[in-house]
Every structure is written in C-alpha cells, then in structure tokens.
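Data deposition worksheet. Section B asks for the primary sequence of the deposited chain exactly as it was used as input, without tags or linkers unless they were present during the calculation. Section C holds the resulting structure in token form. Section D is free text for depositor observations; keep each observation to a single sentence. Incomplete worksheets are returned to the depositor.
Section A, Depositor: J.P.
Section B:
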Amino acid sequence: MHRLGVRLTVASAALLLGAACANEDDANGEVNEGADAEEERNEEAENNEENSGADNDENGDNEDTADSDTGNEPAEDNDNDDNQNESAAAAENDEENENSAANAEESNNSNSGGADIDGELDVHFIDVAQADAALVEVTAPDSDTQRILYDTGDWNQTYALDYLEAEGITELDAVIISHPHADHIGGVDQIMDAGITVDELWMSGEETDTDTFERALDAADTHDVELIEPRTGDEFTFGTLELEIINPDQLTGDLHESSLAVRFDYGDVSLLFTGDAEDTAEARIAEKGEAADADILQLGHHGSATSTTAPFLEAVDPSTAIYSAGEGNTYGHPHAEVIDRVKEAGIDLYGTDAHGTVRVESDGDGYIVETEHDGEVAPGDEGAADSGDTNEGNGNNGSTNNHRTNDSENDAALADNNNGVAAGCIDINSAPADELEEIHQIGEARAQELKDLRPFDSLSGLDAIDGIGPARVDEIKEEGLACVD
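Section C:
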C-alpha cells in the first residue's frame, strides 16, 4: 500500500493547488487566469491519471484503478491474487517433488543394474598346488569388507592359511566347501584353529568317513560356526555381492556330481565356481540358461577331461577361464583336450601351475586379470597317471614340496602329522585312511585294503593291493609321498 499512499498525496496536492489558484482569480477578478488555472488543474488530473495507470501496469491486477475508493474491493482482490499465487507455487513445488522422486527412482534403478557400484571386487585364485582355494573380497567405502573363501586347499599343506595370514585376514563371512574331498575341505580346521573367525560354513551335505571331513565338522562345532547346506535356486547377498546356487538340485551320493556350484555376481561381472562337478552335473547346470552364463569360469576338477564339456562351455560362454593345479602333478592336469577346447573358443586361460596366484579385480563394470608371475599354460604329463582311476580327484598331491610358501613351517607340520616321519612322507603303516588316499593310485577302497594288509616292510609290498601292480608301485615311489617307518 506504500505506492497507493504516494498517489493520494499527489492528488491532494493537486486539489490544494487548484483551490489556491481559484482564490487568486476571485481576488484579481481575472477570468482568463481562472481559465488558465482550470486548464492547469485538468493537466494535473491527466498527469495523476497517467501516473496511476503506470503504477497499475507495474503492479499488475492486484491494485484497482479506483485508488481513492475506501471500500474493501482492492484488498479482496489482493487476497485472491495472493491465494492464486500460493496455489500456483504449491503446484509448482509438487511438480518439482514428483520430478525429484522420479529422478531418484531412475537413479536407484540405474544403480541396481550394477555398473555404478561404489567399491571393488577382488578374487584371489590362490596357488595351493594340486588343490583348490579362492578368496573373494568385496570392499565398499561405507561398509565392512565382505570375504568369502571357496574351498580351503589340502590337509597336508597350509597354503590357504598362509595366504590369508599374509593378507592380514582375521575374519571370513563364509567358507564354502564344494565337496568333502581332502583337497577342497582340507584346510577348514587349520583356518579355524588358527584363530580366523568364520561366520558360516557351507557344505553340499554329502558325507565321507575320512578323518579330514571329521576334523572339519569338529572344528566348526568347537568354534560355533553355523552350518549351511544350500540348494539350487538359493540366493544370498554379501554387501554388493550376490550369490546364486546352481548345483546340486539334490544329493546323489557322488561327491563330484553333488559339488556346490555357485555363481557370484558383482554388478555386470559374474564368476562361476563348480568345484569338481563333472559332465553329468555340468549338463544340469547348462540347462539353467542365463543362470549358467558367466564372464569368468573356474574350470571344474582342476582342468580334468572329466569336466568342461563342449556344451557346458558353450552355455557358460566365459571370456576368461582359470584352473587350479599343481605343477608336475601326477594326474596330467590340465588335460590337453580341455586346453584345446578352451583356446579354440577364444577364451583367455590362466592356471596356478603356470602363473601362480591369479587375481581378478573388478569395479562391477569390467575386470582385469593379474598373475603372480608370467607363464604359459601347457597340458600335464598324462602318462604319469592312470586315466581310468576313478579316485584321481581325492586330493592326491604330487608337487607338495615344490610349492611351499614357508618350507620350514610346513615341514614341521607334516612331521607332526606323520608321527615324526620325514616331512612330506605318509607312513603307510600308521597313517589314517584319509591320509593314505593322498597317495597316488590309493582311493578309499584301496586305503581300507592297505590298512588290512599292514604292516609292510617296504613300498614294494603295495603290489599286494588289488589293482596295484609293479608299474603303479614305481609311480608311487616316484611321487615320493609314501614311505615306511
């Protein structure tokens, strides 16, 4: 109302000026000057009208042209206009809020695609000789690092434990055991007894009567670790890492066929681990379509020809394949036909026997592969093993002495395990069944028969075991793992 007050003051001044002029005309009796005064008043009135119009134009429709009217109409007009302005502003704010919500939803949907994950995935395919162990780590700025260990190495070496301790790891959110053969479950008790906290222990549910398997269960019980037996279709989340179980559908009694196969998804990057799953299990997995698809595949059964069939490889369609095998192992892993099949498919191939520990780092969009050292993948010496031996996956290790990360500590541990016998030696007269199974050509059945035939004067006496002839005895001697105390 400040401008309205100014206009009233100008109008009053005009009236006063007009009155003064009129008085002057009466006093002098000059009609012409009265006419001049009248003309001046008209000009001033026109000027006031123009000024009033200019003010109205400047302020819009909120102020009425009848400024001198003392009624309530201008005030009501102002209130209505204010309400209309407030309603328009509220509507505009609502629209902005809706747009903001839509943008937030679009952003969330974009993030759920995985390409914009704020963190990093680091997968370590640890060199554990003729065994398996892979550490999966997920780091994020605003949350704790999530760590999962898939398989744990063999019972008669501490490579997995040594690696974890060297990395400064004191806690694992989960340990996943693909199946209870010693070269996969062997390090469970070592890791737990060393003081590394394990929250969950995942197992397929298949059982064996070996001491290694019993030690793993005892350790889990002692350290109050939760046991989980997942099945196909089960899904789990660790931070920004998603896991899906794609084998087994059900237990079969065959440790390899029931291997706990897991697909890891980190943003747009996926990895598939299948343990020692062989052709039958691979066929089931391949039928799962997109669930089998992965960027990185850990070759099943250490690169054995029992696994990585052509249909399975086609279904997974990886760009990178990695296997774990011991240098100079007695099983000929990886087998030549598997190497050829992978390379012919244009897949990059890495192996722990050739490259040492292999690491994969990912931001959820792409990934890079780093190796401990340069190397070239080559087939193993298949002539060193009997390809018809159905127990070749039971954790036999023909290269234990060649891959120690700490020779003195491991030698001492093995000496303790073998009742004072030389480091790396399994005394066939005193070792338990699961340790005997580590010897080349000795599976579960032959280990039991060996125990029944004790004592032995020399390794040559092993030819008394069904299926073990002089040639296989020579292979056992060459391996250097068995001995007689």
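Section D:
The first strand starts at residue 120 and ends at 125.
Residues 1-38, 47-80, 99-114, 383-422 have pLDDT under 50 and may be disordered.
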